[in-house]
Task: inverse folding
């Protein structure tokens, strides 16, 4: 049994029923960095939502640490493609929001204990702020005062501060410029090494998947009307030598093309 067990899972949306995923069987061990590749509409984000617990399969089970979770909780952090920050809260309040909601009810927030814990949360949030490469002076800023890369760093801190065993990242870097994207790739790889979290990282970018992941999974359809299956499940060599990367990129893209037609966004460069 792995940390995450996806057992014969199928998903369809409708009516009329439109198949999205079919017979997905995956075991993900604690501490893995798994990158999920595939074209737009192949069910990558759906797979993440199943693990998060915000979506249920039509058939099969998704078990996290041996049990089915009916809803999201703090064991699984989630970073979407679009920054998930509250525009009316400061950076510091955005980072501590999850901790406060998890520990205190609405009425619990008027007790002396809440204010003691809130000070502790804020000290911890400032530590995360430094770890993600921002300054203490950024704590009082609002999201619209930050660049896209800075906002995404705050979103990652927001997810990490609850100390999730699993971090789910849904194309979290795709909207960033190339320089910022490379910096965020370095950051998340370092945070993964330091925290030991299990990461599921959805991307279109084959080179990004190879540079980040310890394992790459390709989802693909046989044709436009069918559901996606696991077309390839590949361990990434460690270390991945520079001269190996072009061969591995071609292999991943060949699998996607043979299963799904034209490669499209899968071969996006960075």
Result:
């Amino acid at each position: 049994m792995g940390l995450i067990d996806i057992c014969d899972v199928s998903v369809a949306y409708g009516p009329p029923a439109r198949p999205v995923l079919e017979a997905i069987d995956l075991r993900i061990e604690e501490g893995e960095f798994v990158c999920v590749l595939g074209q737009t509409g192949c069910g990558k984000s759906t797979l993440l939502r199943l693990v998060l617990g915000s979506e249920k399969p039509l058939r099969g089970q998704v078990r996290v640490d041996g049990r089915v979770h009916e809803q999201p909780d703090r064991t699984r952090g989630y970073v979407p493609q679009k920054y998930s920050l509250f525009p009316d809260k400061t950076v510091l309040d955005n980072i501590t929001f999850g901790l406060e909601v998890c520990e205190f009810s609405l009425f619990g927030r008027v007790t002396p204990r809440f204010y003691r814990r809130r000070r502790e949360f804020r000290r911890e949030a400032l530590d995360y702020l430094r770890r993600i490469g921002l300054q203490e002076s950024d704590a009082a800023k609002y999201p619209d005062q930050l660049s896209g890369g800075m906002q995404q760093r705050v979103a990652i801190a927001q997810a990490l501060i609850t100390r999730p065993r699993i971090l789910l990242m849904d194309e979290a870097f795709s909207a960033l410029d190339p320089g910022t994207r490379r910096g965020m790739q370095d950051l998340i790889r370092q945070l993964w090494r330091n925290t030991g979290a299990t990461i599921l990282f959805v991307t279109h970018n084959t080179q990004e998947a190879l540079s980040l992941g310890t394992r790459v999974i390709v989802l693909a359809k046989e044709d436009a009307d069918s559901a996606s299956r696991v077309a390839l499940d590949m361990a990434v060599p460690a270390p991945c030598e520079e001269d190996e990367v072009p061969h591995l990129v071609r292999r991943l893209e060949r699998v996607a093309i043979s299963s799904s037609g034209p490669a499209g966004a899968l071969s996006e460069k960075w």
